Amino acid sequence: MKLHTILAGLLLAVATGANAQVAAHAPTHILQPNFSGTNQSTQPAGKPVARVNGAVLTDHDLLREMYTIFPYARQHNGGVPKEMEPQIRNGAMQMIIFEELVYQEALRRKLPVSPARLQKAESDFRKQFSDPQDFQNLMQVEFHGSRQLLRAKIQRSLLIDSLLKTEIESKSAVSPAELREFYEKNPARFQYPESFAIQTISILPPAEPAGEQLKEMRKRAEDALRQARATKNYEEFGVLAERISDDDYRVMMGDHHAVDRAKLAPQVVQALLNMQPGQVSDIIPVDQAFTIIRLNKHILAGKMKFEDVQAQLQKELKDRKTNQLRSALDKKLRQNAKIEIL
Predict the structure, then answer these.
(1) E runs forming strands in the chain
(2) Which CATH number do you get for residue 211?
(3) What is the pTM of this model?
(4) DSSP state of 60
(5) Which of 248, 257, 238 is closest to 196 using CA atoms?
(6) What domain range is 221 assigned to?
(7) What digits encode the pLDDT tens for the residues 52-81?
């Protein structure tokens, strides 16, 4: 898993919460976001917002992280919705503090960055700008036209990346034995209930159906049943459902996918138990509605095979271990740090 990119010196993220879990991400846009026009109080002016062991973090850093947390700022005239701002601001503050702590720890350990690696990183960074003017704009806004400042920022990013790989990525691997052990020790997690894969065509009643309306509903249902039984496969039944059904599933070809037996009405279950895949039911009254069902598959209760869940389980356990390692690193770095929120 890639924990850091060339751009991450500008946009390393730390997910906050009770456990101070830290999450890195790869941003797609690093130009200073425009927060004008919505909330004047949040416009960056280079004002200090925090000190981390004496290193000053500014509102430029903070706003950049807020923009990363809320990538839809462009849809809000460059700003963060007022009701979300306190939470996003707090999250961004924790992000930039963690980034600085990781950077300082990398310096303390004297982690190396070779000239060749730095050169390649700078080259890769430049390649992300299809328009040279965009790069020049960034250089002026972020680095005052100084290539030296740019290289320092990239080096900072690479140092952060190196430390995160050492402390998190290299330790978050999950072995085949760990996967198998988790699978065996959590059997209930992989059980699935008896279910039915079905499609439906429903004729729904008005709010207060009268006698004549009920007769009309029944007539519609009988006509729908005649047409449904003339269908030969999933697609034909689905097209019919899209055209004549009243329930919301009509937009999905009437497909409910696999439905837990316990969630179906008793009369529906009884009908399904007497059907074979591909068959269409009679009209089934359900809460004043008339429903016609096509059974696609009857799925008996069972347990998912290890091979079928292995890939997803690998990702889940790796993510869990990564979050634990991130939380531990965050806590460790904060223990003896002097952090001031200004």
Answers:
(1) 48-52, 55-58, 191-192, 195-203, 255-260, 284-286, 289-299, 302-303, 339-341
(2) 3.10.50.40
(3) 0.64
(4) H
(5) 257
(6) 194-300
(7) 999 999 988 888 888 888 877 656 565 677
DSSP state of 156: H
Dist. CA 169–CA 175, nearest whole Å: 14
Q: Would strands 55-58 and 339-341 be described as parallel, antiparallel, or unpaired?
A: unpaired
Question: How many residues are there in the chain?
Answer: 342
Residue range 282-340, pLDDT digits in tens = 999 998 899 999 999 999 999 999 999 999 999 999 999 999 999 999 999 999 999 99
Q: Is residue 187 one of the residues assigned to a domain?
A: no
Q: Which two tokens stand for residue 327?
A: 């939380």
Assess whether 142 and 246 both reside in one domain. Answer: no
Q: 246: which 2 tokens?
A: 């009243």
Q: What element of type H or E holds 329?
A: helix 306-335
Chain Cα centroid distance, residue 155: 30
Task: Give the integer Cα–Cα distance in Å for 61 and 49.
Answer: 9
Residues 271, 333, single domain; the answer is: no
Question: With the CA atoms of 62, 64, 69 and 71 taken in that order, what torsion angle do they form, in degrees rounded to the nearest 10?
Answer: 150
Shared domain for 140 and 36, answered yes or no, is yes
- Residues facing residue 27 across a β-bridge: none
Cβ-count burial of 154 within 10 angstroms (0-12 exposed, 13-18 middle, 19+ buried)? buried
Sign of CA dihedral 22, 26, 29, 31: positive
Strands in 48-52's sheet, in edge-to-edge order, are 55-58, 48-52, 339-341
**Do the beta carbons of residue 286 and residue 267 sit within 8 Å?**
yes
Who contacts 53 (Cβ-Cβ below 8 Å, separation ≥6)?
100, 101, 104, 337, 338, 339
Q: CA-to-CA distance for 77 and 86, rounded, in angstroms? A: 18
Across-strand partners of 260?
195
Is residue 283 within 8 A of residue 221, CB to CB? The reply is yes
Tell me the C-alpha to C-alpha distance, in Å, between residue 126 and each of 122, 156, 339.
Answer: 6, 17, 34
Give me 3's structure tokens: 């924990």
